[in-house]
Write a structure and sequence with these properties.
This protein is α+β, with helices and mostly antiparallel strands. Among the domains are: about 90 residues, no CATH class; about 140 residues, Histidine kinase-like ATPase, C-terminal domain (Heat Shock Protein 90, 2-Layer Sandwich), CATH 3.30.565.10. About 70% of the residues lie in helices and about 5% in strands. The protein contains 25 helices and 7 strands. The strands form 2 sheets. Strands 2-4-5-7-6 form a 5-stranded mixed sheet. Helix 10 packs antiparallel against helix 11, helix 18 runs antiparallel to helix 19 and helix 24 packs antiparallel against helix 25. The two termini are about 65 Å apart.
Length: about 700
C-alpha cells in the first residue's frame, strides 16, 4: 500500500507538469480558436507569429488529433525560423505523445539531430531520448520493460563517453528502478535510487537554466518522493528543501520565452503546479511549522474556491485531511476522510484500505468515536483478508491455468511433431519442383532478356548514329553558310580596293587610304580564320581541360591592369572589386585568362566613357567573376542569342561574331557557366560561375 501511494503521487506530478491547456480567465475557447485560425488564414502575420499562434491553438484544443496537428505546424515553422527553443519544446511534446510509436520517435529524433544546434545539443537530445522511456515506465502495468532497460543500462555503462549520454541513461535507470520497486519492493533499494538521482543533478548543475530545468524537475520530484517515503527527520528536511527548490524552478520556468507568452497556459498552470508543491509540503508539518502550514492551506483554499467543477474542488480533500490532522482539527479531519471514502470506487480496494488506515490513525489520535474506529478497523481487516484471499485464489487459478496450458502444449507438441514430419516431406517435394521450374524460368528469362537488351542496344546505336549524321550534316551546312557570309564582306573589300589601286584614272592622293583598308580587312579575315580554328579545336572534344588549383584573384587583377595599360581611352576607368583576400579555384588559368581578356576587350569596344569593372565573389558555393561596363548594353531578349556563332549585335563594329561562342565553349570545358546578367541596367555585365573549393 505504501508503494501504491508513492506511485500514485508520482504519476500525479507527471500529469501536472505535462498539462498543456487552461486559462485563468473565463474565455470562449471555440471563439478564441476561431479567431486565431482566421488570423493565420489571413496571412497578415509573420512566420514567427504564426508559430506562436499554433502553440496557442495547441494549448486551447482538447482534441488530441487537432493538438498534434497544431504542434507539428509549430515545429515546421520553428525549423524554418531556426528557433532552437521552439524546436526543442515542440519536439519534446511530440516525443512524449508518440512514446509508444517507435517509428515516429525515431523520426523526431532525426529531426532533433538535424535541426538542433549549439553547444547544448547533446543534452537536448538526451532529454528527448530519455523522457519517452520514463513516461512509458511510469505507466507500465508490468516490470518487463523496466528490467530490459536496466539490462541495457549495464551494457552501456562502460561505454558512456560524455555527460549527455550519462544523464540520459541515468534517467532511464532511475525510472526503471522505480518501476521494478513498485512490483517488487525488495529488488531495488531507495539508497541506490537516490545515488543515481544525485548523479543526474551533478551532471547538469553547470548547464544554463533553459537547458537544465527539465532534468532538475525530474531530479527534484523523484528525490522528494524517496526522502518522504524514508520517514526520517533529516530526510524530511531535505524533502522540504527539494520542494522549495521545485517551486522556484516553476517560477523560473514560466519566465522562459516558450512559456511566458502563452496566455492560455501560463497563469492557471503555474498556480496548479504551485498547489501541487503545497500539497506535498503538507506532509511535513513538523519541518515547516504551523505558521507556514496555515499560509499554505489558506492559499490552497482560495485557489480551489475559484474552481467551478466539483472534480477540481475534490482535489483539495487529501490536502485538507493532512492539514486538519496536523492542526488537531479532528472533527474536520473526520468529515474530510468520510468524504474521501464516499468518493472512492468500491472496486478500488487498495485506495479504500489506505483511507481506512488513515481513519483509524485519526481516531487513535483523537481518542473519540471509538465505535466508528472499531467499524473502520473491521472493514479494513475484512478488505485486507479479502485481498489476501483474492490474491491466493488468483495465484491458484493462475497455477491451474498454467498446468492446463502445459498439458495442452504437450498434446499439441505431439500432434505438431507428426504434422511437421508429413509437412516436411510434402514441402521438400514441392520445393524440388519449384526449384526445377524456377531454374528453367530463370534460364529462359535470361536468354530472352539478353536478346531484348541486345536488340534495344542495337536500335539505340542505329538511332544515335542516324541522329549524329543528321546533326553533322546540319552543322556543316550552317557552318558553310555562315562562313560564306562572314568571309564575303572582307574579301569583297580586299578585291574592290585592290582593283581601285590598279586603276590609273585615280590620283595618288585618292589611293593613299586604300592599302590601310585592304590591311584592315585582311586582318579581319585572318582573325576570322583563327577564331574558326579555335572553335573547331574546342568543339572537337567535351572533356575538361587540364586543371590546377590557382588563386584567381591576382590573375584577374593582372588581366585588368594589362587592359588598362593597353587602353587608349582616358575617359574609361578600370576598377577591380572584391572582399576576398584570396580565391582558390581548380581551373585552367590560360583558358580562363583568354575568356576574361575577351570580355574586357568587348567592354572596351562598346564603352566610350565611364567604368569597366571586374568583381570577384563567392556566391552559393561558386566563384563568380563578373565583367561589367557602362557602355551601350545588350537587350535582355538577346541574352542567350549573343552566345551563338557569328552573332554581332552591331554589324558596323569590328569582330568575327565567334568570340562569345568560343568563351562559352571554354567555360563549359572548365566545368562552369557564362551568362549575361539581365538585372544589370547600366551597360552590360557578363558573369562567369566556376565550381568553388569544397
Amino acid at each position: 500500500m505504501k508503494y501504491y501511494l508513492i506511485r500514485s503521487i508520482a504519476t500525479a506530478w507527471l500529469i501536472l507538469l505535462c498539462l498543456q491547456s487552461g486559462d485563468a480567465r473565463e474565455i470562449n475557447v471555440d471563439q478564441t480558436k476561431k479567431d486565431l485560425l482566421e488570423t493565420l488564414q489571413n496571412g497578415a502575420v509573420d512566420k514567427r507569429r504564426q508559430m506562436e499562434l499554433y502553440v496557442d491553438l495547441y494549448d486551447l484544443s482538447d482534441d488530441e488529433t487537432g493538438k498534434l496537428a497544431y504542434i507539428k505546424k509549430a515545429l515546421e515553422l520553428a525549423v524554418r525560423q531556426k528557433d532552437q527553443t521552439y524546436i526543442f519544446e515542440t519536439l519534446d511534446i511530440l516525443c512524449r505523445d508518440y512514446k509508444d510509436d517507435a517509428d515516429s520517435l525515431r523520426y523526431y529524433w532525426r529531426m532533433g539531430e538535424e535541426h538542433l544546434k549549439g553547444p547544448y545539443k547533446d543534452f537536448y537530445m538526451a532529454w528527448l531520448k530519455a523522457f519517452p522511456s520514463v513516461c512509458k515506465m511510469d505507466e507500465a502495468a508490468e516490470p518487463d520493460e523496466a528490467n530490459e532497460e536496466i539490462a541495457r543500462y549495464k551494457q552501456h555503462e562502460a561505454n558512456l563517453s560524455d555527460k549527455s549520454q550519462e544523464v540520459q541513461w541515468e534517467m532511464i535507470l532511475c525510472s526503471a528502478m522505480e518501476c521494478v520497486s513498485y512490483f517488487a519492493p525488495s529488488v531495488t533499494s531507495a539508497e541506490d535510487r537516490i545515488t543515481h538521482l544525485q548523479n543526474i543533478h551533478q551532471l547538469v548543475r553547470d548547464l544554463p537554466f533553459e537547458v537544465s530545468y527539465k532534468f532538475d524537475w525530474y531530479y527534484l520530484t523523484r528525490i522528494e518522493f524517496l526522502l518522504r517515503a524514508g520517514g526520517k527527520a533529516d530526510e524530511a528536511v531535505k524533502a522540504v528543501e527539494a520542494l522549495e527548490q521545485l517551486e522556484q524552478l516553476y517560477d523560473n520556468q514560466f519566465e522562459l520565452p516558450f512559456y511566458k507568452r502563452r496566455a492560455y497556459l501560463r497563469i492557471r498552470n503555474r498556480e496548479a503546479l504551485r498547489m501541487g508543491v503545497y500539497s506535498e509540503l503538507l506532509y511535513f508539518g513538523d519541518v515547516i511549522g504551523r505558521e507556514k502550514m496555515d499560509e499554505i492551506y489558506s492559499r490552497m483554499e482560495n485557489y480551489y474556491q475559484d474552481e467551478t467543477s466539483k472534480e477540481s474542488k475534490n482535489m483539495l480533500l487529501p490536502s485538507s485531511f493532512r492539514y486538519y490532522l496536523y492542526t488537531r482539527q479532528y472533527d474536520l479531519a473526520m468529515q474530510t476522510i468520510n468524504e474521501l471514502l464516499a468518493q472512492t470506487d468500491t472496486t478500488d480496494t487498495n485506495r479504500k484500505t489506505e483511507l481506512l488506515a488513515k481513519k483509524i490513525d485519526l481516531i487513535t489520535q483523537w481518542e473519540q468515536h471509538y465505535k466508528e474506529g472499531f467499524d473502520a478497523f473491521w472493514e479494513y481487516t475484512s478488505l485486507m483478508e479479502d485481498n489476501h484471499v483474492e490474491e491466493t485464489n488468483r495465484q491458484l487459478a493462475e497455477m491451474r491455468s498454467l498446468f492446463e496450458v502445459d498439458k495442452l502444449k504437450i498434446e499439441q507438441a505431439e500432434l505438431q511433431t507428426r504434422y511437421h514430419r508429413i509437412a516436411l516431406v510434402v514441402l521438400i517435394v514441392l520445393l524440388l519442383i519449384f526449384l526445377l521450374w524456377s531454374l528453367y524460368q530463370y534460364r529462359l528469362t535470361k536468354r530472352l532478356k539478353a536478346t531484348k537488351e541486345a536488340l534495344i542496344l542495337s536500335n539505340k546505336k542505329v538511332a544515335e548514329e542516324s541522329e549524329r549524321a543528321k546533326a553533322s550534316d546540319r552543322m556543316k551546312t550552317e557552318f558553310l553558310q555562315s562562313m560564306c557570309h562572314e568571309i564575303r564582306t572582307p574579301l569583297n573589300a580586299i578585291c574592290g580596293f585592290s582593283t581601285l589601286l590598279l586603276n590609273e584614272d585615280l590620283s595618288r592622293e585618292d589611293k593613299e587610304e586604300f592599302p590601310a583598308i585592304i590591311e584592315k580587312n585582311s586582318n579581319q579575315l585572318t582573325e576570322l580564320f583563327e577564331d574558326i580554328l579555335q572553335v573547331s579545336d574546342l568543339s572537337s572534344s567535351l572533356e575538361l581541360f587540364p586543371m590546377e588549383r590557382v588563386d584567381v584573384l591576382p590573375v584577374c587583377m593582372e588581366i585588368l591592369d594589362a587592359c588598362r595599360d593597353r587602353s587608349k581611352n582616358p575617359a574609361i576607368a578600370y576598377v577591380f572589386e572584391s572582399a576576398l583576400d584570396k580565391c582558390p579555384v581548380t581551373t585552367n588559368v590560360q583558358y580562363l585568362q583568354r575568356v576574361v581578356e575577351h570580355l574586357l576587350s568587348n567592354a572596351a569596344k562598346f564603352t566610350t566613357t565611364g567604368t569597366i569593372r571586374i568583381s570577384l565573389a563567392v556566391v552559393e558555393g561558386s566563384v563568380r567573376i563578373a565583367v561589367s561596363d557602362t557602355g551601350i548594353g545588350i537587350p535582355a531578349d538577346k541574352a542567350e542569342y549573343i552566345f551563338d556563332r557569328f552573332t554581332k549585335l552591331d554589324d558596323f563594329m569590328p569582330g568575327t561574331g565567334l568570340g562569345l561562342y568560343s568563351c562559352r565553349l571554354i567555360i563549359t570545358r572548365l566545368g562552369g557557366s557564362i551568362y549575361l546578367d539581365t538585372s544589370y541596367h547600366d551597360g552590360a555585365c557578363f558573369c562567369i560561375d566556376l565550381p568553388g573549393e569544397a
